[in-house]
């Protein structure tokens, strides 16, 4: 079991039962509704209360500047003062304002150090306004930072686990402004497929029309289905979308093989097929050993010490896969299962798949990362 090979669950079902029927999926898990989306927010703030792990103000002058601004807003004049505390850190605060977020609601925020602070553990974020792309303030963040790591340092050693310079504040921002979006007044809406596919879009159109009647849904292209809200005869667009998103369909997807060379991971679907092909695989190992000998002259004799080189070279061929023929129509999952049973390493298995693809026998999209 030394192979680091990951197969999708659908592949396992295919090997066990000789093929499995594709499961039906809700439309809401396949599409995005046009206009129903979140908005990114960002802010620049200050984390205080750190245990000597904050920014060095000589290396991060922007930390001193924002600290001065905050103190002046609180009525404390620090003009010309010299203060260099080590328990503050300048941070960027990011969040996503979800669709239909209302004023007074709360959202999660992520806090990340931008100076030379070594840790945000135990820190507290001071009131930070969060702006959207239009420059308007949509939320205000404040709270205790929960960092995702730990660090310890001694006189001559330091150990760091995780990333202590970044953390989150659950429900750390309060929504102050709502995004204007009138769903109730929309006469039509588009469904955008996350993975464009003509067959899946046609099945979505058929399923919606089968529920509400012909003409309600119309496929525009592989990634878009247009929905006529008025034709659904529902009280509002929200009622129509609430019913449409739970309709079940059987999605279609391309045959695809994804390979991660760094970890030796292979992921594939059960619809990957290969044509008739022969496979032979083996490894050659070249070893060169150096064992020089030092030759010295006899005592009281004239001469110089000489190094005599001695090398040993050897070539070994490791056991591999002999010439094997794969019949037409065999699924790639069966081939990989056979290679796995023979003890082929993930690296060699990836090379074999590349060669099969280069030979034109692998009928699938081959993605290498």
UniProtKB/TrEMBL annotation:
<comment type="function">
    <text>Assembles around the rod to form the L-ring and probably protects the motor/basal body from shearing forces during rotation.</text>
</comment>
<dbReference type="GO" id="GO:0005198">
    <property type="term" value="F:structural molecule activity"/>
</dbReference>
<keyword id="KW-0975">Bacterial flagellum</keyword>
<comment type="subunit">
    <text>The basal body constitutes a major portion of the flagellar organelle and consists of four rings (L,P,S, and M) mounted on a central rod.</text>
</comment>
<protein>
    <recommendedName>
        <fullName>Flagellar P-ring protein</fullName>
    </recommendedName>
</protein>
<comment type="similarity">
    <text>Belongs to the FlgI family.</text>
</comment>
<dbReference type="GO" id="GO:0009428">
    <property type="term" value="C:bacterial-type flagellum basal body, distal rod, P ring"/>
</dbReference>
<keyword id="KW-0969">Cilium</keyword>
<keyword id="KW-0574">Periplasm</keyword>
<dbReference type="Pfam" id="PF02119">
    <property type="entry name" value="FlgI"/>
</dbReference>
<dbReference type="GO" id="GO:0071973">
    <property type="term" value="P:bacterial-type flagellum-dependent cell motility"/>
</dbReference>
<keyword id="KW-0282">Flagellum</keyword>
<keyword id="KW-0732">Signal</keyword>
<feature type="signal peptide">
    <location>
        <begin position="1"/>
        <end position="22"/>
    </location>
</feature>
<dbReference type="GO" id="GO:0030288">
    <property type="term" value="C:outer membrane-bounded periplasmic space"/>
</dbReference>
<dbReference type="InterPro" id="IPR001782">
    <property type="entry name" value="Flag_FlgI"/>
</dbReference>
<keyword id="KW-0966">Cell projection</keyword>
């Amino acid at each position: 079991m030394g192979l680091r090979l990951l197969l999708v669950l659908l592949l396992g079902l295919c090997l066990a039962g000789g093929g499995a029927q594709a499961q039906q999926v809700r439309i809401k898990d396949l599409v995005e509704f046009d206009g129903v989306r979140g908005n990114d927010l960002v802010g620049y703030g200050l984390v205080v209360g750190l245990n000597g792990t904050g920014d060095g103000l000589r290396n991060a002058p922007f930390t001193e500047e924002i600290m001065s601004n905050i103190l002046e807003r609180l009525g404390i004049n620090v003009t010309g003062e010299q203060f260099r505390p080590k328990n503050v850190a300048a941070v960027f605060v990011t969040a996503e304002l979800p669709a239909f977020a209302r004023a007074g609601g709360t959202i999660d925020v992520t806090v990340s150090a931008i100076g030379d602070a070594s840790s945000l553990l135990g820190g507290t974020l001071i009131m930070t306004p969060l702006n959207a792309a239009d420059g308007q303030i949509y939320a205000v963040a404040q709270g205790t930072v929960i960092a995702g790591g730990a660090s310890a340092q001694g006189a001559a050693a330091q150990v760091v686990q995780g990333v202590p310079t970044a953390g989150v504040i659950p429900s750390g921002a309060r929504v102050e402004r709502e995004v204007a979006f009138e769903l109730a007044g929309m006469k039509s809406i588009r469904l955008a497929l996350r993975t464009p596919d003509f067959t899946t879009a046609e099945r979505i159109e058929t399923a919606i029309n089968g529920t509400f009647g012909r003409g309600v849904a119309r496929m525009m292209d592989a990634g878009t289905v247009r929905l006529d809200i008025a034709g659904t005869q529902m009280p509002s667009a929200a009622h129509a979308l609430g019913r449409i998103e739970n309709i079940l369909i059987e999605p279609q997807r391309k045959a695809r093989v994804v390979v991660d060379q760094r970890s030796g991971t292979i992921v594939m679907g059960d619809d990957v097929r290969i044509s008739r092909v022969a496979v032979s695989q083996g490894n050659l190992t070249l070893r060169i050993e150096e064992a020089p000998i030092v030759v010295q002259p006899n005592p009281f004799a004239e001469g110089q010490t000489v190094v005599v080189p001695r090398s040993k070279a050897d070539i070994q061929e490791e056991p591999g896969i002999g010439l094997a023929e794969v019949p037409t129509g065999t699924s790639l999952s069966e081939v990989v299962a056979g290679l796995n049973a023979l003890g082929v390493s993930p690296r060699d298995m990836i090379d074999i798949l590349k060669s099969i693809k280069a030979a034109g026998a692998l009928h699938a999209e081959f993605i290498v990362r």
